[in-house]
Design a protein that fits this description.
Blueprint lengths: L6 E7 L4 E4 L3 E2 L4 E14 L5 H4 L6 E6 L7 E8 L2 E20 L3 H4 L21 E7 L2 E8 L6 E4 L16 E4 L6 E9 L4 E5 L3 E5 L8 H4 L15 E5 L6 E8 L6 E5 L15 E5 L6 E5 L9
Length: 306
């Protein structure tokens, strides 16, 4: 479920560094109900006419709550009548609660027209303005700058030079290279995620929004239920950025190989327990596990009362 109260958060981007940011809040649902059946990539709810509710000009994601696909977050590929199709095949199930949300565009999240400190580009040279980098998979990023050239205002793809307002899914973290001389404050608003979420850890480096509230710690996150345990050299790593310096601390879940005990540890910091270490709004998972997997993001216990 979600909190009925819309919240807001201020994200800060420091000058001269690549700031890893994530969206803890997200767009309000356009429909929430239950599917009678889930079969492969087809989901059916006879109580809802998706054709009359959803728009072909908007992209959507669907969240599943409960059942055999608990926590799945999937792109809606097509919709017609009482059915949706999604991007990946699911375990067959019945009577599964769901929520459908629109996916925001970059300008909805970072709108330079209302952020006077955001450095816009007047000459179409991406080196002359603030730059947004959105992970595109395989360790690559799509880069975007904002043009202030008269008649050509808007985001441009730095590689192609083509105007583009890309999708920014709330579970994906992104980098903001701040070229202005002062800190940039970015206010985001939306609903609070209060249910489990499964995210695909497919690449060597994977960038996620934490979804957790400010101050959420490794010890409460339950990330260890999904990650590969091990030593500094073998375990999956959680990369957490210092928001002021841009440096990253690396954490792992020790399997107890001497001289370390079992639990959260920081690379280079010996056997000091790190379960109280905080997650930033955006974080990275460095996968060392031999195969891709899904990581479970579990909301903190106090969310159950929301």
């Amino acid at each position: 479920g979600t909190s009925p109260v819309v919240g807001y958060e201020t994200l800060s981007a420091q000058p001269g560094i690549f700031n890893l940011l994530g969206l803890r809040l997200f767009s309000s649902p356009v429909v929430a109900d239950a599917f009678e059946t889930i079969s492969g990539t087809t989901l059916t709810d006879s109580d809802v006419d998706f054709s009359s509710i959803l728009s072909g000009s908007t992209s959507y994601v669907i969240e599943l709550e409960g059942g055999l696909n608990e926590g799945e977050l999937l792109e809606v590929v097509t919709f017609a009548g009482n059915t949706l199709t999604v991007a990946a095949s699911l375990v067959a199930d019945t009577n599964v609660s769901y929520t459908v949300r629109p996916v925001a565009r970059l300008k909805e999240i970072i709108d330079p027209d209302v952020l006077p400190d955001f450095v816009q580009v007047a000459d179409f040279n991406p080196d002359n303005g603030d730059l947004v980098l959105i992970p595109s998979g395989g360790g690559e990023f799509d880069r975007y700058y904002y043009s202030s050239y008269p008649g050509q205002e808007g985001y441009f793809n730095a590689a192609t030079g083509i105007p583009e307002n890309p999708l920014l899914t709330y579970t994906d973290a992104f980098f903001l290279l701040r070229r202005g001389s002062t800190e940039l404050s970015l206010v985001t608003s939306g609903d609070l995620k209060t249910s489990n979420t499964l995210l695909s850890v497919a690449d060597t480096f994977n960038y996620f929004s934490s979804i957790y509230p400010v101050g959420e710690t490794l010890g409460v996150s339950n990330l260890e239920t999904s990650l590969q345990w091990g030593t500094e050299a073998s375990a999956d790593l959680i990369w957490v950025q210092d928001s002021l310096t841009g440096d990253f601390d690396q954490y792992f879940y020790s399997d107890g190989t001497p001289p370390l005990g079992v639990g959260w540890r920081k690379v280079g910091d010996g056997d000091t327990d790190q379960e109280s270490a905080s997650l930033s709004s955006g974080f990275a998972i460095h996968r060392r596990a031999p195969a891709p997997y899904e990581v479970l993001l579990t909301p903190p216990p106090f969310y159950s009362g929301l």
